[in-house]
Amino acid sequence: MMVLSLLKKDFLIVKKYVLIMLFVIVLIPPFMRWRTPEFTGVLGFILSVVFAVFMLLQYVSLKEYQFPKAAALLCAAPFSRKEMVLSKYLFCMAVYVICCIVFKIETLLIPGLGTADIKMFALMFLVTAVFIGLYLPVQYKLGYEKTKIAFMVIIMASPVILPLLLRMESFNLDFLSMISPWLISGGIVLIGAAFLAASAFLSMKIYDKADLA
Predict the structure, then answer these.
(1) How far is 45 from 48, CA to CA, in rounded Å?
(2) Cβ–Cβ contacts within 10 Å for residue 71, how many?
(3) How many CB atoms within 10 Å of residue 196?
(4) What is the number of structural domains in the chain?
(5) pTM here?
(6) CA-CA-CA-CA torsion for 72, 212, 15, 135, nearest 10 degrees?
(7) Do residues 42 and 50 make contact, with C-beta atoms less than 8 angstroms apart?
């Protein structure tokens, strides 16, 4: 599939930062476990996903902004605009999956990080889907320059806002323990996937009208 070639292209763009990003997503959970022990490794996992997805996505967007003719050349090749948009969503989800795998390995090797269960991964998938689903259409509409401030706000505010949200009593999800974890997780994933699909459709509509000259 052409979209897989575009996905490979995005990973090649960020290859210089892959080892740095892996180091970051490995380091954040135990560091946050030390700083906020009441959340075990959950807060660290959330932050590692936010940092990895947005940092790598932003770097890809920066390179595309620096070389605007590349998009026009790709469209002249056998790549459609819809495939180019779809590859960005797949890129973000691929980074998310990598974060899940790394955190799962960490929970097996580092005591105190808690357990990486299906409900947590599903809930974080939904959170990631909402963030990406809102961010990418805006970026396609306004461009990299106008949306990079939003990226900076997300990165800088996350370590402050997320602990406050997790401390709120209303965030307590204990009542979900009475329902099958697979049923809950399946529902959450379906909601996230539907949100991503709607967002991707909107981004495709926006990008179809973009002037790549």
Answers:
(1) 5
(2) 17
(3) 22
(4) 1
(5) 0.85
(6) -150
(7) no
Of residues 25 and 40, the one with the higher pLDDT is 25
How many residues are present in the chain?
A: 213
Q: Decide if 108 is inside a domain.
A: yes
CA dist 37 and 52 (Å) reads: 22
Mean of pLDDT over the chain: 81
Can you give the residue range of the structural domain that contains 185? Answer: 2-158+181-208
CA angle (100 as vertex; 28, 198 as ends), nearest 5: 115
In contact, 17 and 56? CB cutoff 8 Å: yes
Residue (of 159, 142, 157) closest to 61 by Cα position: 142
CA torsion through residues 106, 107, 112, 115, sign: positive
Pick the closest to residue 41 from 155, 95, 120 (CA basis). 120
What token pair was written down for 74?
Answer: 């790709």
pLDDT at 55: 87
